[in-house]
Amino acid sequence: MQTIDIPKKYQKELGGVRAHYGLEMDYLYQNDMYSKHRVLVDKNSNLMLSEQLFFEHHTDDWSFKPNIDLTWTSSHYNTRYYGLKQVRVEDGFSLKFGIDIKYHLVSNLYLTGQFNETLFSHSICKSDLMSSCSQYEYGLGILFAEDLKRLQSAHDESDTQSKKHYLRFAYGIATKASAAEIITFKSHLKEIESTNQMFSVFYGYQVTDRIFSLPIDVYPTVGYVHHLGSSVQSSSEEVVLGMKLYYNFYWPTHMRFGFAEGISYATYPSSTESKEIIEEDGQKPSRFLNYLDLSLDFNVGELFQVPSGNQFWLGYSLHHRSGMFKSSAQYGRTNGGVNFHSIYVQVDF
Length: 349
Fold this sequence. Notes:
Blueprint: E1 2-3, H1 8-14, E2 17-18, E3 21-30, E4 33-41, E5 47-55, E6 57-58, E7 62-73, H2 75-81, E8 92-106, E9 109-120, H3 122-125, E10 134-144, H4 148-153, H5 157-160, E11 165-175, H6 179-183, E12 192-205, E13 216-227, E14 236-250, E15 254-266, H7 271-281, E16 288-299, H8 300-303, E17 312-322, E18 337-348
Antiparallel strand pairs: 1-2, 3-4, 4-5, 5-7, 6-7, 7-8, 8-9, 9-10, 11-12, 11-18, 12-13, 13-14, 14-15, 15-16, 16-17, 17-18
């Protein structure tokens, strides 16, 4: 993703973030040193070549990853991103160096930080729209990940058991109700949009079954969604990448509350989504939007006391796409979105 450092009010029109596609080759020199070699283009075939070198150093609680990145960008690329198609910019180089730091706080919780500085060649920074020949980036956050100390100890059975996979098959129907109204049970059946329906399939891979010693399963997940055509919309496709968490509990049988966060790309936004965003924002919808999923399911085998059905789950999920109230450049500073009520069957294997 290429982020353009421009004022928020221009990001909707010019595009604050652009996706890039291409090839990458990784080479491992030794356990703590590796490189990445990339050839990338955006949707307009603007070209970028990048050479990256990474070093890693780990202690019991700390992880340090210094890195350096030398990038060449074509004149068409620079004119788009550094001249905003208003000023012609010649091809040139940028040199980026920085460090990523991770500190293990407790259990599955890590504190992360990063700092980077980028230096641009004269051919780029002489653009009238460039205010400086250098750029600084910094970030601070938290990370939920596998407790490496727990993995290394591997004393109990849960540490050595094989990881689970799942496939989830769902049918959904859109609603004009907001996510807040659905969660607080204030939505009504009359708000359902029968002309906007979808089928989806999601795959997940378990990376841990504990967070802070709580029975929480964590799955990176990818999903494909087919939106059915109707009298108000053509059929379209949606792809989702995210992280899914399940909290396991018994009431009175084995149940799970699920939450997922990620990113969604739609080939063409659905009619309900388009209508809301146009009414709320006055502009066309973004294909990239934030993705949320809230779910509640129960284990079929345990409910009906049939052990052969323990790998099956039946449940409800809220499928949500939105622009996060214009808070994110990568979603086009979009306000509004769409929600789907869905029922699903999930199979563990």
